[in-house]
Amino acid sequence: MAGEVAERIAGELGRLDFRGRIAFHLMSEPLLYKRFEEVLRLFRRHVPRAHFYVHTNGDVLTDYERIHRLFEAGLNDILINCYDSQTQFDGRKASIVDFTRHHPEIWFWNKWQCNPTGPRHEWRVVRLRAFFGEGYTLRNWAGHVRASHDETLEFPLKLECARVVEGLHVNYLGQVVLCNNDWKFEAVAGDLMKEDAWSVWTSPLLERYREHLSRRDRSLPLCRTCDNGYPRRREPGYPAADRLAPARRVWGSARLLVSRASTKVQRSLQERGASS
């Protein structure tokens, strides 16, 4: 995506005072992009209170100091998927533990098994997810791959789906596709290379899908063969970094609850002050 297009999109979100989440990945490996830090700075300048996160397979992450540079550029959350083996997971875990010793402001999720306190746009979180092993229930990605459910499903499923409500899914061409299951770009709602984000968000195609899915009607293309939302036997997990993680989780969760309660009290006092 051209720099001027990214600048325009970031500006549009800034004018909307966007405070949601922005994922810098979709059907791609984001860490291969050499200008990634530049893009993060650009968006952070326009939407300072948004939460930036990214998923990666970690294959090109040979220098873990790059994670620190990404956080400095504006990233809040990086999830590193381990697809190969326990050995790969253990090696990456050791590297992250050593790395966070030098950067104590970075929160290694697997060490705490809970989220940090503070606003999400100020987080610096690293997560390590285990995708290897046997027994995972493979989703069918809107019919593009063979699923591995224990039972035979009857399509279309009578389930809602929040994918088209939660956000826009933008591919490497700048096209807004239905969701991350639309691997072949079969349902294109618009083109951010030419259109503004709000026009695409309110496009007839997305509005039509939202209306159908709100009624648990999955009769439209892609949805009619999709198993998203159906319970899976086993999900990929975030194994604890060590045996002390459960204890840290209790402490971290307590801190989080206290922080949230304090925030609510502060807001309540501010509202009372404003109304008096």
Question: What can be said about this structure in brief?
Answer:
By secondary structure, the protein is of the alpha/beta class. The protein has helices at 3-15, 36-46, 65-73, 86-102, 109-112, 163-166, 197-201, 204-214, 245-275; strands at residues 21-23, 51-56, 77-82, 107-108, 125-130, 169-170, 175-177, 188-191. The protein is built from 9 helices and 8 strands.
What does this protein structure show overall?
- This protein is 38% helix and 12% strand.
- The protein has 276 residues and is α/β, with parallel strands linked by helices.
- The strands form 2 sheets. A 5-stranded parallel beta sheet has the order 1-2-3-5-4. Strands 6-7-8 form a 3-stranded antiparallel beta sheet.
- Strand 4 (107-108), helix 5 (109-112) and strand 5 form a beta-alpha-beta unit.
**In one word, what is the shape?**
globular
Query: Low-confidence parts lasting 5 or more residues at pLDDT below 50?
Result: none
User: How many β-strands, per DSSP?
Assistant: 8
Structural Rg: 21 Å
User: How much strand?
Assistant: 5-15%
Give the SSE order as H and E letters: HEHEHEHEHEHEEEHHH
Main sheet strand line-up: 1-2-3-5-4
How helix-rich are the residues, as a percent range?
A: 25-40%
Mean pLDDT: 92
Roughly how many Å apart are the termini?
Answer: 50 Å
Q: Count of helical segments?
A: 9
Secondary-structure class: alpha/beta
What summary fits the major beta sheet? Answer: 5 strands, parallel
